[in-house]
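hi!! sorry for the late reply, been swamped w classes. u asked for the two structures so here they r. pasted raw, havent cleaned anything up. first the sequence of the first protein and right below it the tokens
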Amino acid sequence: MQSPITEYLADIIAATNHVDSGAVADYIPELGAADPNRVAVAMSTVNGTVYASGDAEHRFTIQSMSKPFAYALAIETHGLETVLDRIGVEPSGEAFNELSLDPETGKPRNPMINAGAITTHSLIGDDEDACVDRMLALFSRLAERPIEIDEVVAASELETGDRNLGLAYLLHASNALRQDPRTVVTGYIRQCAASVNVRDLALMAATLANGGVQPNTGERVFSRMGTRHLLSVMTSCGMYDAAGDWLTTVGIPAKSGVAGGIIGVLPGQVGVAVFSPRLDAHGNSARGVEMMKLLSDDLGLHLMEASRPARSSLRETRTTSVDGRPATVYVLQGDLVLSSIESLVRELIDNPPPTELVVFDMSRVDEVLPVARRTSAETAAKLIDEGHQIALIDPENTIPGFRDSHGRAVERWTSEHMDATDR
């Protein structure tokens, strides 16, 4: 049985098919040659399960989405106080490549704009090769596969990197950059040319959602305090001069890249990545922003959305007798949100119910978010198509009028339907 979450992601792509505004980043010749119709979306839970749809295997360069991870690595290397002494954390309200520094401190305003990212890169190693090697090693640990540089894109960016060189010389003149400007910019551009896909990015974002622990390996890559600090900066500065609009509409820590990618992090639940090469006036993927808005609305991702901490929706599974028939009973609990319903769906896929009759007992469920209702309806349809009969015990009518995604009514029981052997 395919997860309905994968099908939902395909629907996100279909729902944004009309978005064709913006243009590819043609100021970098190699990025200007990108296919503007490529599109992909992926999501990784904090337990490391990755769902993806669209051109999910297509590789593109990470670009500015490397900035959060470089900043986190600099914090791990030098400590937060040292990094804060070199780079501020205030939103700039300016474009990502603006030629400016804080007029009072002479420092870059934050690590998400290019001035701050160039300074960050200089803190990662003693020379260009060391910095780049450390970044590639970090990306590889996060994505669980070897990440390499797209040398063609790197060369193209180096040929058109005068603005970044100008920033580096400005930083050097203000003593914010203490290494050779050309060397640092070369390393920074190569950092940005790392080749990834949306699956890689979703898993990398899920490490941040998981408090700095890589979900599958269990390795603590970043400290909890450093991760919290990073996510705060991403929330206020990650989307450049569109950060305020992003925070009010999507409402999660995020970072974009001019190749067309965006990563988003919902702490404690998921990492999300989208890709579409056409950029809006802010340098963010136009279709990617719309995909992220839909994901936020449907999945209840907005940080200001009041909810209780998520936990597994599955309290207990048992095989028993109901009205003289063998049945598998799934006892659910708490609030059904994205992370909790995902754990139930994964259990049904990994360990399909062994009986024809399947009962979902929702007596302990308090609230069902729209994404959980939709996922439940699609899961019910798949179980029915596979020959199962489904019954729902929902004494509080938490999901009134529940039908599967094909419109078929799901039988509703009361607890009295259960035989004495099951009580």
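now the second protein. again sequence first, tokens right under
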Amino acid sequence: MRISFRKRFLLILIAAMGGIMAVNAQDSISNQDYSFSLEEAIRYGLENSYNSQTASKDVAIALKQKWEIISQGLPQISANAEYRNNLVQPVTLLPGAIAGGEPGTFVPVTFGTKQNLTATATWNQLIFDGSYIVGIQSSKTLLQITENAKIKTDLEVKKAITDAYGNVLLAEENIEILKNNLKTVQKNLDDTQVIFENGLAEEEEVEQLKITQLGLQANLNNAVRMEDIAYDMLKVTMGIPVENPIQVEDELDQLSMENFDLLLLSKEINVEENIDYRIAEDQANSAEIEVKLEKSKALPTLSAFVNYGAQGNSDDFTFFTNNQTYFDQSILGLSLNVPIFSSGMRSARTAQKELAYEQSLLELEQTKNQVKLNIQTAKNDYSFSLENYENKKQNLNLAERIENKNQIKFFEGLATSFELSEAQRQLYQAQQEYLQAMLDVITQKAKLENLLDTTTYSENYDN
């Protein structure tokens, strides 16, 4: 059927538009915009951060290793096929007297056929092995170690995202403050320049304000660069490509107020529930299992096997013809291995593992006390951050009032430009300290929450 030019043109146009839409759709996926609150950023990072994904794969590997160990005690079936072509058959010399020859002479003969084909299937079954029983226990411990490591990684990712997110908010707030400060100083500089040109002020006063203006401009330029770095650090921590744009939804002052939680200071947990203690406990359990493994090597091992096979023989390659004859063969057997004497090697290895186990118990006790100390220290740091926040907030209010009074006095001729600059520097320092105090409230709370977290592996994944 012939298609008119008009229809052909429309088909080409539709195909081209479809291709453009597909490309645009692909571009929109690769350049996806992200916008997160802190809580959303944490949820996203727990699923997509590089560390969380690596830890999840470690758990998956441990699950496979567990099954690998279990399967060693299950039936193992293997098959083997072997084809032989004796290009030159071996010759055997028989006494000549057997064939009626002279005594002392030999007759060369060949045995068997030139070509052979053998196929065998074997079933192996482990009946008893002490190390296998210990291996089952070790697989459970290994899985527990990786699960707790995953929880620890998630807690670290949560804190890292909180720190990175807070640094972004700090950078944005810092830029806004510097812009406002620069705007105020620029206005003061312009007004003072006019007063100087009218002969009512000295040139030193203009120069002093100019120094302040240049310093603020340099700080602003650096703050803008630091903002880009802070955003990139947040992206990397969350597992987002650095070339993708990202936005934060929270504000520093609001987020710091939301992190005021005095009840957290009175929260108590059993040290045994702390993730650092649980990891140390896993290491101790692993060391104990290694002791059992060395002791199990002194026990006998028993296994059984049965095989069945067939063998074909021929001088020519006739193994797939109907008249080829195959001879069956089958073996049933038991294998018992009993360790008797190792010249003290096994006892020396066992003693090493027992000493390593005792070391792990000491480390577990040390970890227990260290966790208690860390919790107490974190509570103190969080409490100080709350008090410091209130202190720096009051300092900022006082610094703003002092700077405002000196600015009025300066234009009334009651204060010098040096006094005004000192008041401004005091204000700028108070602003930076207040920003840092807000960030400390957020980060110190995250640190304390990590130590008090009692999330189990199953709970962590159900959520």
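hope this helps!! also noticed smth abt the second:
Residues 34-74+130-299+343-452 form a domain with the Outer membrane efflux proteins (OEP) fold (CATH 1.20.1600.10).
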